[in-house]
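queue> pop job 88
queue> type: inverse folding (structure -> sequence)
queue> payload:
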């Protein structure tokens, strides 16, 4: 059987409230990426709630970074008590391409292919937050290890790491072809093929960004997160 709460479909995976995805942070973010990188996301919400799409926790289980999908806005959390909101509707049943640019102590959230953005500083220092060894946890689809926290329920087509904070501003050129076409495909939840193995893990593998018709400067290598 597939891992609990994880349903594969043509363009990615669907997560429901039974999904439990957690990994050591240093296994998700490759060495040398932090603190200058971009996260490129392609997601679609299936349930209206205020769940976190992902969360980075310190070794002391403090919230360091998280993206919360709230009706009418995207809330960027950059510390236990630090957050900013971008007016945007993530619960309209459509696919949404988003990006976060992390550059030192600053984080920028982008939507609408860079036409909308909001910036915030991290609300923690290296002593209480992330060390150079990236000691901490990565949670996907929720904000804490408590089962009472709301779970993200929806589809994930892309979750890529690009070793360049500047890449986030032009992130739509990094959206994969199948994610651009994903909105034309409505996943059929039965039968569930292919079936994923029992054990859930997260790995980073090299990927190539989409190139435009014009000659451009060489783009950074990206790393995709996969459930394997």
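queue> result:
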């Amino acid at each position: 059987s597939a891992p609990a709460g994880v349903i594969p479909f043509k363009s990615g995976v669907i997560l429901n409230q039974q999904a439990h995805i957690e990994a050591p942070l240093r296994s998700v973010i490759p060495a040398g990426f932090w603190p200058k990188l971009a996260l490129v996301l392609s997601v679609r919400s299936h349930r209206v709630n205020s769940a976190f799409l992902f969360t980075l926790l310190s070794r002391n289980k403090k919230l360091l970074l998280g993206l919360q999908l709230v009706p009418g806005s995207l809330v960027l959390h950059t510390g236990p008590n630090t957050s900013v909101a971008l007016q945007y509707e993530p619960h309209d049943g459509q696919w949404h391409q988003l990006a976060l640019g992390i550059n030192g102590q600053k984080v920028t959230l982008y939507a609408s292919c860079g036409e909308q953005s909001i910036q915030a500083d991290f609300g923690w220092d290296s002593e209480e937050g992330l060390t150079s060894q990236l000691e901490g946890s990565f949670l996907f689809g929720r904000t804490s290890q408590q089962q009472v926290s709301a779970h993200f329920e929806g589809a994930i087509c892309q979750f890529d790491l690009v070793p360049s904070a500047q890449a986030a501003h032009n992130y739509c050129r990094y959206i994969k072809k199948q994610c651009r076409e994903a909105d034309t495909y409505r996943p059929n939840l039965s039968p569930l093929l292919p079936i994923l193995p029992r054990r859930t893990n997260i790995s980073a593998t090299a990927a190539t960004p989409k190139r435009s018709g014009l000659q451009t400067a060489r783009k950074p290598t990206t790393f995709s997160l996969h459930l394997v």
